[in-house]
């Protein structure tokens, strides 16, 4: 069995300092490829460094909505430059976060639009973050009909999920799918396996039974198991489908 953790932040100290151990534990759980997702220029470069050191790590480059206010003036040139590396497989994470509003909404929107414009020009998939911003994310994504990608750590409702799929996006579930009283199992149940991905968002969002502890990529396994239970299929089928989906979206 093989699973792809389509979204993890391996550059944080807890993960980076023990990376070989962390990745071995992941292999034991059947998780053997990892997409290390950048949130600003510095950590995107770290992702690329890891991707060049480890055959089974891939990288993405982008400015997270929290970091939008601190994006360097030439960040689009830097992204265009970094994305020429073969293991830099997507633009992300980008998006909107109105829950924390660490950057002003209008700055977030600008930086989101600029990166989507670049993704469209470079024909690269995007990894987007959306927190409490369904309407604006949908509005902005609809301005870029040629751009595809993934709604990372999906946490909205079924209608929003279906609209993202109609726009050509995959839906990625993380550990919060396993949380007690979550609405997400009811959403996931209605979505076709052909459009689903799994991820950890490590070091955040540890799934049950590790909720509240620092997360690591191997725990993609628990998200996949939950998805299997929800859809009434074997873990093997979830692994095959989500891995095929990841390979196709990110040209792995
Ligand atoms: Ni993330």
Describe this entry's structure for a reader.
The chain is α/β, with parallel strands linked by helices and 252 residues long. The chain has one domain (3-250): Metal-dependent hydrolases (TIM Barrel). The protein contains ten helices and eight strands. It has helices spanning 13-16, 19-28, 41-53, 75-82, 105-122, 134-142, 158-166, 184-189, 220-231, 235-250; strands at 3-8, 31-37, 57-61, 88-97, 126-131, 149-151, 169-173, 196-198. An eight-stranded parallel sheet has the order 1-2-3-4-5-6-7-8. Helix 9 (220-231) crosses helix 10 (235-250). The longest helix is centred in the middle third of the chain and has 18 residues, at 105-122. The radius of gyration is 17 Å and the shape is globular. The structure holds nickel (II) ion.
Describe the structure concisely for a colleague.
This protein is α/β, with parallel strands linked by helices. The protein has 10 helices and 8 strands. Helix 7 links the parallel strand 6 and strand 7.
Class inferred from helices and paired strands: alpha/beta
Strand residue content: 15-25%
Separation of termini?
Answer: 17 Å
Q: Give the overall form.
A: globular
Which fold name is given in CATH as the topology?
TIM Barrel
Helix content: 40-55%
- Backbone CA Rg: 17 Å
What is the total number of structural domains? 1
Q: Walk across the major sheet and give the strand order.
A: 1-2-3-4-5-6-7-8
What is the count of DSSP helices, taking H or I runs of 4+ residues? 10
The averaged pLDDT comes out at 97
CATH architecture: Alpha-Beta Barrel
| Poorly predicted tracts of residues | none
Number of strands: 8
CATH class: Alpha Beta
Give me the strand/helix succession. Answer: EHHEHEHEHEHEHEHEHH
Reported for the largest beta sheet, the result is:
8 strands, parallel
């Amino acid at each position: 069995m093989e699973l792809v953790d389509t979204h993890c932040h391996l550059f944080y100290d807890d993960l980076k300092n023990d990376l070989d151990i962390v990745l071995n534990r992941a292999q034991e759980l059947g998780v053997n490829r990892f997409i290390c997702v950048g949130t600003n220029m510095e950590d995107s470069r770290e992702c690329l460094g890891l991707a060049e050191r480890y055959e089974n790590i891939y990288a993405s480059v982008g400015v997270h909505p929290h970091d939008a206010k601190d994006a360097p003036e030439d960040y689009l040139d830097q992204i265009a430059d970094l994305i020429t590396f073969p293991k830099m497989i997507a633009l992300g994470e980008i998006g909107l976060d109105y829950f924390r509003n660490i950057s002003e909404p209008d700055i977030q929107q600008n930086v989101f639009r600029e990166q989507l414009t670049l993704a469209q020009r470079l024909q690269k998939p995007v990894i987007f973050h959306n927190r409490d911003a369904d309407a604006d994310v949908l509005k902005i994504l609809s301005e870029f009909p040629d751009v595809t990608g993934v709604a990372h750590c999906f946490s909205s409702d079924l209608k929003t999920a279906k609209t993202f799929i109609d726009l050509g996006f995959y839906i990625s579930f993380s550990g919060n799918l396993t949380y007690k009283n979550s609405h997400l199992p009811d959403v996931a149940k209605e979505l076709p396996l052909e459009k689903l991905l799994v991820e950890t968002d490590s070091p955040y969002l540890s799934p049950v039974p590790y909720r509240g502890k620092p997360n690591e990529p191997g725990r993609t396994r628990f998200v996949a198991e939950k998805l299997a239970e929800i859809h009434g299929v074997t873990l093997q089928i979830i692994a095959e489908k989500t891995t095929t989906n990841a390979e196709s979206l990110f040209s792995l």
